[in-house]
Structures are given as C-alpha cells and as structure tokens.
Amino acid sequence: MSEFREFAHQSNAWPFAEARSLQKRLDGKLPDKGHVLFETGFGPSGLPHIGTFGEVARTTMVRHAFEELTGFETHLITFSDDMDGLRKIPDNIPNPETIEPHLGKPLTDIPDPFGTHESFGAHNNARLRAFLDEFEFDYEFKSSTECYESGQFDETLLKVLSNYEKVINVILPTLGPERRATYSPFLPVCPKTGVVLQVPIVEWDEEAGTVIYEDENGSRVEVPVTGGHCKLQWKADWAMRWVALDVDYEMSGKDLIDSVRLSGKIARILGAMPPTGFTYELFLDDIGEKISKSRGNGMTIDEWLRYAPPESLSQFMYQKPTKAKRLYFDVIPRAVDEYLGNVDSLLNMPPERQLDNPAWHIHGGKPPAERAHIRFNVLLNLAAVCNTEDKSVLWHFISRYRPGATPETAPILDKLVEYAINYFQDFVKPEKSYRAPTEMERDALSDLSETLAGMAADADAETIQTEIYEVGKRHDFEDLKSWFRSLYETLLGQSTGPRMGSFIALYGIEETRTLIGKALAGEDLNME
After folding, report:
1. What confidence score (pLDDT) does residue 294 get?
2. Beta carbons within 10 angstroms of residue 509's beta carbon
C-alpha cells in the first residue's frame, strides 16, 4: 500500500477528487480487463497545440492520483480520430493544391502536403506522438482508421446497427429540420471515391450487418458497417469508442458538454456505463475572447517554451481547470514563479500536505532535486536593469548571490536565465518607460540610498526588504504599494516588479545605489 494512500482519500487537490469519483464508478473494484483505462482524444486535421497538452497533462495528473489512491494498474490511450473526412483545407499547410482533389476522404487517405509521410493523417499523428514523447507522457497511441479497418470496432458497430432507431432518437431532437431529414449515425465510405459520405440511410439490415444509401445516380448501394466501410458520426462515434475500448475516464472541454451527455446516452443504449468525466473550462485570449485554432488568436506550445520551462505550463494547466483563464504571454512569469515556489515548498511539507501541492502532481510525486533559489521575475528585472542578452552578465550577479553556482552546476537556473533574457527582449524591453521621481519620491529614494549604504554588502533579501518598508513608512506615500510602485516606475521603468529585497540582494547594494543616483540625476536609464 502506498504511504500516501490514507492521505489521498482526504486530499483537496482536484486530481484526487477526480480519482475518488472514478473509484466510486468502479465500486472500488479493478475491471475485468485488469487495468483502468484513461483516454484523451485528438483531431488530426490540425497540429498539436496547447489545448492538446493541457488535456493530456491533466489526465495524467488524475491517472497518477488514482494509482496512488487505489494501487490499480492504469493505461492511457491517446486516440486520433484520423478516419474523419477532411471537409476544408487547413490554412497552415504547404502545397494545398495537393489536398483539394481529396477533400471528403479520411485523413489517412489524403496525400501528405508536407511530403514526409504516407498520408496527411499519418503526418499529423507522427507530430502528435513526437509532441507527447517530448514531454515524456506515458501513453498508447491508437488510430481510428486502424481500429475501424482491423475489425476492433466491429462488434460494437453491430450493436449500434441493432439499436439504430434508439440511437437516432437520441440525436434527432438536437438537430435542425434540414439536418434531421438526412441524419444517420453511419457515414458510408464510398466504394468508388473513398469519400466519407454524409447521405441519408434508406435501409439497414441487422442480420447482414449492412446499411443502404442512395447514390447520386439514384442507384442503391449496400455497404457493411464493419471493416472500415463506414464511419460513425461524431457523438455516436465517441460513444462507440468508449464501449469498444472499455474507457473508464475521459475529460473534455466545456464546449463538449452536450456531446458528452448525448454520447453517454448512446453508450447506455449499447449496454455500457459511460466513463467518468471532467469538464474543463476553455482558454481566453488577451482581450478575453475564446481562443480558436482557426482564428489563430492563441499561443503555441513553441512560443510558451521560448520563455518558460514546460513544467510552468503544467502549473498553468493545474490551477483552477474549471475556470476560464487568459492564455497570453503576460501569464507566463507568474506561472513560472508559482511553479518554482511550489517545488521549493514541497519537500518542507508534511506528507499529508504534499498531495495538495501542484508540484507533486506535475512531477508525479518526484520533483527535481535542484532548486532555482531565484524567482523568474527577479531574473527578468535583472535582465532589464542590465539591458543585456548576454547570459554571462547575469551570471556575474547570480554567482555573487549564490556562491559556487555556475551554469554547469545549476542547469535549471541557467535555463531560467535564458528564458528571462528571451522574455525581456520580446516583451519587457519594448514597453519600458521610466519616469522622473516627484519631489517626495526623490526624498524617499535618497533616504533609501543612505539606508542601503549603512547595510552590509551581503545583507540578505529579508533584511533589505524590511529596511525598504521602513523607508516607505517614513515618507508621505498613500500606502506602501504606492512606494513600491514608485520604485518600479523610476528605477525599473515598469508599473509592477519583483520583491525589491530579493532584487537588490541579487543586483547588489552598491549597484542599486548607483542606479538610484542616476535616477535622481535624471540620466536615461534606458541606456543601462
């Protein structure tokens, strides 16, 4: 039994809440298949994106929590719906002219416009697997095309056929009049063109295991529902997959709430219990609008990873998954520092509290041994004051603050320095705008400089922070927030900033006094 098992039953962390919900669905018993199956889905008409990462990362967190809670063996399937017919040409592919003659065919029957794989579906599936492997997710990949064509879905497809009218009656009330007249859960694959057809089914034969549709020329065409000759419509397909694969847990976005409900009804018609689910909120862009792949108003994985470690993205995904969140570049520094703070505090927590720490879930209970000891926002402001792209300049200050630390002995910190420089150059530097201090602020800055002069060169961050507070209290600021804002605006050229005690301890007391002197003298700090 896991040492955390008892604590897992009491943990308030949402992955453990989900794990307990799944345990209840299973009535505390291991399924006959010998493991508990988690699933995530992927639509391979596009490339993997941050939403893909979020779903797999969050599912992995629940999976690990469930293992700790129960000791049961688990598997994770990442399912690619690559038998879908491609209805329009994506905007972000080369050689679109090679795709146009094949519109409507399954993605796995369309030539790869990138010229690297046997099909467009295979190309995007390979990208998905490389993406998941890069983040070291533990999963099994499944292709819809392979499952249909190999016969893995045949038994369940025949169940759908034998319950044809019941399945239709679940879906029809949700459709408009025009779509209702042509709807069928089965989409035949045209024997002549290979196109996935959206045509009315005029007859079906449970005994023969076939459906009949009317061709364009008026003739009737009979095709088996098995062996990859038909593809199910989305909601019926999702339910069929749950039943055929015996899925126990799958989460999905808020936009799929109705689909989950309808697919659950169909799964019950097929004689199975729907998986335990979890609905997460969607992401918003910088102005609060829903992120859309087609609009391109979001952020890519590569963009996030230019400025921050992947664990910080996991931190972002962990926090409040049922609340809509802005996913824009300005959330990155906070996500990094939240992650670093959680890692730092994890090992000092008693076991029962560790399970509520996001870092425990991000690292599967095994956080890295190295600690950064310096917050990302402090590094950002160091880069800003030094106005440099040279890591060695920042390391000059870091090595004085952390004697013995080098890029070789502190690789996590070294990578953070690189991230900070990139973020500074792209986002902080273009927006920096210093202002001259007011008379009252000049007095306070002079007081701060004199106070720093009386301190030891190696004074720690807390001691410095306390003295900064005392200086602020001696002057006529509205509140201490106003005092710190004035420091940020006059010394750092921005309205927000780091904990000043930590920044000064890193940058240096004499260097800070020099910076204050230049601000008082009216020198252009943008030239620093």
Report:
1. 47
2. 20
Looking up tokens 């899925």 gives: 247
| Pairing outcome for strands 249-253 and 230-232 | unpaired
Nearest to 132 by CA among 93, 64, 76, 83: 76
Do residues 507 and 385 lie in contact, with contact meaning Cβ atoms separated by under 8 Å? Answer: yes
Question: Which pairing describes strands 74-80 and 210-214: parallel, antiparallel, or unpaired?
Answer: unpaired
User: Cα separation of 507 and 520, whole Å?
Assistant: 19
Amino acid at 516: I
Per residue in 120-136, pLDDT (tens digit) is 999 999 999 988 998 89
Angle 25-268-62 (CA atoms, 0-180°, nearest 5)? 35
- Chain mean position to CA 506: 32
Determine the Cα–Cα distance for residues 142 and 147; give it in Å rounded to an integer: 7
Residues in the chain with pLDDT values less than 50: 1, 294
Q: Which residue reads 């000791």 in tokens? A: 71
Q: What is the pLDDT of residue 67?
A: 95
Residue 213 β-bridge partners = 201, 221
Give the number of C-alpha atoms closer than 13 A to the C-alpha of residue 527, restricted to the C-beta side.
Answer: 5
SS3 state at 240: helix
